[in-house]
Design goal:
about 650 residues, 29 helices, Serine Threonine Protein Phosphatase 5, Tetratricopeptide repeat, mainly alpha, single chain
């Protein structure tokens, strides 16, 4: 049974399967044609791919544990010819279309294909018919799995004809733009795709706002859903957070098309909630996950696999909101249903999630006990490196380093066999294992794994967040070595910052994380002024993206206090340490240890301030956080290429 582990949501993207909306295409050209009924009937009968995995509508797979049925749209209006002569003319032109498709498939190049088309067809169709004919040929080619460049040739020709033949804000043009955007997205030409899809979206939204449903409300909504999901794909490919906005819009569109009480609408809510978890927007995801659970409970019952996955995701959201008791309760309910349904692997996945929650709560013994209860299941379902890594994590916190090291070695042995088949997943696991090796003071083993990870990622196109993680950890580890190699950490950390900026933009929370690590490196190297500048940038980014009370934002505030203290600027150090104390107070029981430590440091700073003389205070202006620009106008030193060896 296919499934989606909550832990993998952050690295996954919605899987989108194409289906045809040739029916909408047919209806649209039937309605908008200004030609005679011969033209209308011709377009009605040019229905090349009613069952194809075509170009337009792309309802994404939501839960990976079930199949989403394809949509076979058929909204066209049948037109009856006035007489037999018109019917005969339609049949002739339909035959011409089929001949053109054969010629296009046989053509060796798009240029040869269009030359044949112009020679054989342009004089046999009027202008209104020709744009529709071009698009129909493209649909046929896509159905047959032909070269995308051939499809693009006909789509571009169709757009050129329609741009001159109909209004600029026309449904027919929006459909053609969607086909172009979809194909360019498949070719990973995201900038080209974005231009066509943005124009299509603008046209369809205007048609909605104007109440212009000449071709039917459902037809417009069908194409709008396709465009929204294409835009999700494009923005994911461009590493843009706008993907989440379009995915949210697609949920509402799906609700209109399928009904707010439909299973499909529940699936769409689940998908969006999962995307929110991956983006750490837990509050945004919560109402959507609850809606998915409500719908699936009503339609499928308490003991359905869909409901179990809803509860598993809901547990992850509650954990992100630090409501761990609620999180564990939902996870336990999910495990219960998975057992009833015989979904052994899903039970283990949920148990791993629960163990990580228990570890976060400091309940290490309970985490180990839970995992040991499932050891037999793991052996029966082959070795599970994630299970071994989670067990090692719990053992590390129990200070059982010997057994933890054994689990990590076994996990590496399993992962080594999967490097070629699943390089991204293996690289992700290596980074996590390296972190655990660091915790048991196996620094050399950690550095070795990270170098292995970077080598593995070097030739992979979709390596963004993993490369950033490996670079960041490498930089942090080098700071733990002797002074001769500590300075080598800076290039790795600078490169990590630039990697995140290139992928997500300068205001993404990931950039704040990387600046935080870079600032700590400058502190270790006894460069507090540089550290303070970097922490200012990190704090502004994290405050604006995650909020000032997020754990990472509080840690950055604490780091900024440390930098000012190292500069003997105690008033500023006390100010930011007090902010850290105030923020931890709002986290309740789960942050008691951190609050206690923050208060201790605050008192220590006050003592240091009382003993400091006025000459200790620096005369030059110090960097301070501000909220007007998340980049703070400050830039880290320009990145240099990290050295290959340690």
């Amino acid at each position: 049974m296919k499934r989606l582990s909550v832990r993998l949501i952050s690295s996954s993207k919605p899987t989108i399967s194409s289906t045809s909306i040739s029916g909408i295409f047919t209806q649209q050209f039937t309605t908008c044609s200004s030609s005679s009924s011969i033209s209308e009937s011709l377009i009605q009968n040019l229905k090349p791919c009613s069952n194809s995995n075509g170009l337009f509508s792309k309802p994404y797979k939501t839960h990976q544990f079930h199949k989403t049925p394809s949509h076979n749209y058929s909204t066209h209006v049948k037109i009856t010819p006035y007489n037999h002569s018109e019917q005969s003319e339609i049949e002739k032109k339909r035959a011409l279309i089929q001949e053109a498709v054969k010629a296009a498939k046989a053509a060796k190049s798009p240029e040869e294909m269009l030359e044949a088309f112009e020679k054989d067809m342009e004089d046999k169709f009027d202008k209104d018919e020709l744009g529709a004919a071009c698009l129909n040929i493209g649909l046929n080619l896509e159905k047959e799995g032909e070269d995308p460049q051939k499809i693009l040739s006909f789509a571009h020709k169709s757009l050129a004809i329609l741009d001159n033949a109909v209004k600029k804000c026309s449904f027919s043009i929006a459909m053609t733009l969607q086909i172009l955007g979809f194909i360019y997205c498949k070719l990973r030409k995201f900038n080209d795709a974005l231009g066509f899809l943005n124009r299509a979206n603008k046209i369809l939204v205007k048609l909605e706002n104007d109440g212009n449903y000449e071709y039917g409300v459902k037809s417009v909504k069908d194409v709008l859903l396709a465009v929204q999901l294409d835009l999700v794909d494009v923005h994911i490919g461009m590493r843009s957070m706008e993907a989440l906005d379009y995915l949210r819009k697609s949920v509402e569109t799906k609700g209109f098309l399928k009904g707010k009480d439909s299973k499909e609408f529940g699936d769409a809510n689940w998908e969006f909630a999962g995307a929110c978890v991956g983006s750490q927007k837990f509050k945004d995801g919560l109402p959507y996950c609850l809606k998915a659970l409500e719908i699936h409970l009503r339609l499928l019952g308490e003991n359905s696999v869909e409901v179990a996955h809803d509860r598993q995701l809901l547990g992850a959201i509650y954990a992100g909101l630090e409501e761990y008791e609620k999180a564990l309760e939902e996870n336990w309910l999910a495990q219960k249903v998975f057992r009833i349904c015989g979904c052994t692997e899903d039970v283990i996945d949920a148990a791993i999630d629960a163990a990580n929650m228990l570890i976060t709560c400091g309940r290490y013994e309970a985490a180990v006990k839970m995992l040991k209860e499932h050891e037999k299941g793991v052996e029966e379902n082959s070795e599970n490196p994630l299970f071994l890594m989670t067990m090692a994590k719990a053992l590390v916190y129990q200070k059982n380093f010997a057994d933890a090291k054994g689990c990590l070695e076994n996990a590496c042995r399993v992962l080594d066999k999967k490097e070629k088949s699943k390089p991204l997943e293996v690289a992700d696991a290596y980074i996590k294992i390296a972190d655990l090796y660091e915790k048991i003071d196996e620094v050399e083993a950690s550095i070795f794994l990270l170098l292995r990870t970077l080598a593995l990622l070097e030739k992979l196109p979709e390596k963004g967040h993993l490369e950033r993680g490996a670079l960041s950890r490498m930089g942090s580890l080098l700071l733990m070595t002797d002074k001769a190699t500590q300075a080598m950490a800076i290039p790795y950390l600078e490169r990590a910052v630039e990697t995140v900026k290139e992928s997500y933009g300068s205001k993404h929370f990931g950039v704040g994380y990387m600046y935080n690590d870079l600032g700590k490196a400058y502190l270790v190297l006894k460069r507090p002024e540089s550290a303070a500048e970097i922490f200012v940038v990190a704090k502004d980014i994290l405050d604006s993206s995650l909020g000032p009370h997020h754990k990472e934002s509080i840690n950055t505030c604490q780091n900024l206090s440390n930098a000012y203290a190292a500069m003997k600027s105690y008033p500023l150090a006390i100010e930011f340490q007090q902010k850290a104390v105030d923020a931890w107070e709002g986290h309740g029981h789960s942050a008691e240890d951190k609050l206690r430590e923050a208060r201790r440091l605050l008192e220590q700073l006050k003592v240091s301030a009382r003993g400091a003389s006025s000459k200790d205070c620096p005369e030059k202006a110090l960097p301070l956080p501000h909220s007007s620009d998340a980049s703070g106008g400050l830039q880290a030193p320009q990145p240099s290429s990290p050295k290959k060896s340690v």
